[in-house]
Amino acid sequence: MDLQTIWFILVTVLFIGFFVLEGFDFGVGILLPFMGSEDNDRRTVINTIGPFWDGNEVWLITAGGAMFAAFPEWYATLFSGFYPALLLMLVALIARGVAFEFRSKHDNRTWRSFWDWCIFAGSAILALLWGVALSNFIRGVPIDSSMQYAGGFIDLLNPYALSCGLASLFIFTLHGAVFLTLKTTGELHDRAMGLARKLWAPATILSMIFAGYTYVATDLFQRLGVNPGAIPIFSVLALLSVIVMLKKNASGWAFAMTAVAIAFSTITIFLGLYPRVLVSSLNPDWSLTIYNASSSPYTLGIMTTVALVFVPLVLIYQGWSYWIFRQRLARDSKLEY
What we know:
mainly alpha; globular; Formate dehydrogenase/DMSO reductase fold; two-stranded antiparallel ribbon
């Protein structure tokens, strides 16, 4: 296994970590206005992700840094071609982060409601656009022979990408609802369980539509070597099992299954891409691969040594933080965000 492949795997793992962990953050933010009109209810909902949301975003920062260092041509083409979409995502991230910090700075009901809706809007935009971005990776975007993006913002909002965006929006929302069943008690727990059961059907249907669309619109499944592929089947089975776990009130298993569905879907996308990182819709030969978009072997070697030292430390720290804040929260919980 060469260094380019190792770093492609590492970038995949970082995106899996981001989507699984930040995914339930997005879902909780989307559900915030629907979990109750009372401030105590909404504050408790925010408290469930209060210790985690900024740490979860580190996965995205690390993935972006890994792309920049290991595959600079991929990073350059992506950030120049997807600039309007990425700018919108950045604004949503900023608005969401500011809202978490500002909502409790004033007791005024209108003030808090405004920031709650900022959390909702920022979370929904991000959940939608990440699906749009990933689907364009595999469908292909207009990249010319010099690795330059030759399209516009509208090219990214094609029907296939929007179908993936809607699927990711509902999957992350379901993921967040199941997370809330793990972290709340009493009426809030019951409300989250009811929302999770209602969200399962649209999330599953939209995911199936996207999978079928992927089969006819891309070469992803054919490139996996198994048609339609074992890993996407496991992802579907995990998603189908969620409703069974919810009906049995097995919130832990339901959350594990939504996490598996998200993780295996991400693996499927990156497996279908390999060794490409960004497909050209103009000419397949102009696609960016892990070889024509990578840094020098010397750079990759140094980065591998650094990653072997620091990645385990980050994993240990984040695991410890989840363990410390593992308790369920009630309306009278003292944490406030």
